[in-house]
Amino acid sequence: MAVTISPYASDALPEGTVDVAVIGGGAAGLNGALMLARSRRSVVVIDSGSPRNAAAEATHGFIVLDGTPPPEILRRGREQVRQYGGRIVFGEVAAARSAAATDGDLRFTLTLADGRSVSARRVLVATGLKDVLPQVPGLWQHWGRSVVHCPYCHGWEVRDEPIGILATGPASIGHAFLFRQLTEDLIFFAQGTDLDEATRTRFAARDIRIVDTPVREVVNDEDGALAGARLADGQVVARRVLAVATRMEARTEGLEGLKLPTQDLPDNMGRGFATGMAGTTEVPGVWVAGNATDLAAQVGAAAAAGALAGAHINSVLATADTDAALTAARGDAPTP
Prior knowledge:
Blueprint: E1 17-23, H1 27-38, E2 43-47, H2 70-83, E3 87-90, E4 93-99, E5 107-112, E6 117-125, E7 129-132, E8 147-148, H3 151-154, E9 163-166, H4 171-180, E10 186-189, H5 197-205, E11 208-211, E12 215-220, E13 226-231, E14 236-238, E15 241-243, E16 247-250, E17 262-264, E18 270-273, E19 286-288, H6 299-329
Parallel strand pairs: 1-2, 1-6, 2-3, 6-19, 8-15, 9-10, 9-15, 10-11, 16-18
Antiparallel strand pairs: 4-5, 5-6, 7-16, 12-13, 13-14, 17-18
Helix pairs in contact: 1-2, 1-6
């Protein structure tokens, strides 16, 4: 069996029951854990070490930390959670389920892929999402660098380059106008997307060229950099950047036992967990924060959602602790 090496120092998995288990160590998970640890809650973050933005050279659009490499932000985040007693454990959750408790409170058992397990009173799911790109040969090779998805995350870095919009559906139409703000040289590869006359007229007004012939593959130059798109008729259209509105899917693996409801975005843009206020779900004791529920959230928004969920979890636990103390004071505590 292959052994996966942790990209960072991993803490020991806690024994006994912790107040909160956080699944996912990205911006949302770490910020949620930070809020909980600062409230003196016992918290463990289970993190697989595979963030969505791993391919990006820097994080942008996040004040103070703009331009900081994603691994550095996560490194600082782990240090800060640990500073308040939280634990960060490298691992992947293979199964999660609710478990019977003898004290009237909730319990959840998380089992990791290596067989270890941890018990928790509450769970915060912050697994993030995965981007699904079109099946165009050569596209993944440049993901996060010359193949981008977000004009706010990467736009400044690709400004004034010859950019191609590789359409994936109606959402790519709006994508085109956002990237047109960044370059004078923009081509829209329709890829079968239906463009009515009004849209074509608006594109023409902004000097956005439309290519209706399908893209067959991505072409590289002699140095391996993205050089263009080869069409189905063999023609190569020179481009240095391709922008793709990916389909975004929440990472749900290993969480099936929690039976969390999901919901679709319009135009087949993605699927994430359904949540209410502060990341609450229909499953008592389980919250979701970050890209797993808000598929369009950037790092700052995901971190803020994690903080809000963490604060709400702490509040719910404070009520549960008070109820338990009151029950004990009355002498009618449940019998184990």
